[in-house]
Amino acid sequence: MAELNESSNKRLNSFIYDQQTKNLHSRLLRYMKAGYPIHLTGPTGTGKTSLALSLAKKRRRPVMLMHGNHELDNQDLIGGFTGYKSEKVIDHFVRSVYKKDESVSEEWKDGRLLEAVKHGYTLIYDEFTRSKATTNNIFLSILEEGVLPLYGSKETEPFYRVHPEFSVIFTSNPEEYAGVYKTQDALLDRLITIFVENKTTKQEASILSHKLGLNDRDANTITELISRLRKHSSGEHSAPTLRSSLMIGKIAIEEDIEIDGEDREFQQLCIDLLRAPMSRLLESDHPITTAKELIIQECKNIGN
Ligand SMILES: Nc1ncnc2c1ncn2[C@@H]1O[C@H](COP(=O)(O)OP(=O)(O)OP(=O)(O)O)[C@@H](O)[C@H]1O
């Protein structure tokens, strides 16, 4: 049984490249170099954010991570006046002379997008469809005209020219239907949209062994179970995800639980971690009970 130590914790945060990911990575870097924004879209847990972070890292520019949400507005993106700054200078140099100078000015704070555009950062705009389409409109001028309009500021120029090194990677999950907004075609038309699919069982097992230091047998046991359970999901949904596999592996290592489908402790761990995501995807009158039964059944089926 592998053990988690400091170096394995470092490995846990690493990004693993198989040949397919390597090819995709280099193609995407080429498109970004040519000045095009990337949009990674795909089901939850397929590795969109990790891929975006690894692309951003390769560009060797500062990275800014921004999460879409319905409350995000122009003030968050561009900036705004945050209050007043007052300055008081008291000159009492000559005893008999007392001079007081006081000035009050409005204080402006750059928003996150303005900061990224100004300094040429790589911006990762994660789950951007959770922001309102009207908020995301601002990207149209950035991507088309290369300028950021400065609504609300008192600059003499009503816009800021985009730094030549500025680059943006969007991510979205097309399966999400709650709390997301439809993206305007005009924005989608300016992005290179790449579908990030679920990985194969072999690719997932390889990520598990690299990240957790698991031997092939243990990594395959977990990924086979996850893949078997996915087949019971109704519709397009892809849970349980690679994230669940990593959780099972990490806890099993830390708690010294044998990674074996016949082991009761392992079965209990899988029930605790997988029952909720599974029950949401089952077409059953008693999804919570059915999920538990399926997990135990598929644990016992591993290797057959
Ligand atoms: N190529 C990879 N190498 C290493 N780890 C990976 C890789 N792909 C995915 N992962 C791991 O899988 C998990 C899910 O990845 P990530 O968060 O990037 O998915 P996502 O598609 O952005 O998910 P969501 O839509 O839920 O935000 C993370 O723990 C991540 O570290």
From TrEMBL:
Q: Which UniProt keywords apply?
A: ATP-binding, Cytoplasm, Gas vesicle, Hydrolase, Nucleotide-binding
- Any Pfam family matching the protein: AAA_5
The record ties this protein, via CDD domains, to: AAA
Domain called AAA+ ATPase: residue spans:
34-200
Family matches, as InterPro entries: AAA+_ATPase (IPR003593), ATPase_dyneun-rel_AAA (IPR011704), CbbQ/NirQ/NorQ/GpvN (IPR050764), Gas-vesicle_GvpN (IPR013462), P-loop_NTPase (IPR027417)
Q: Reaction catalysed by this chain? A: ATP + H2O = ADP + phosphate + H(+)
Q: Where in the cell is it found?
A: Cytoplasm; Gas vesicle
Q: Which family does it belong to?
A: Belongs to the CbbQ/NirQ/NorQ/GpvN family.
- This chain's protein is named Gas vesicle protein GvpN
GN (gene name): gvpN
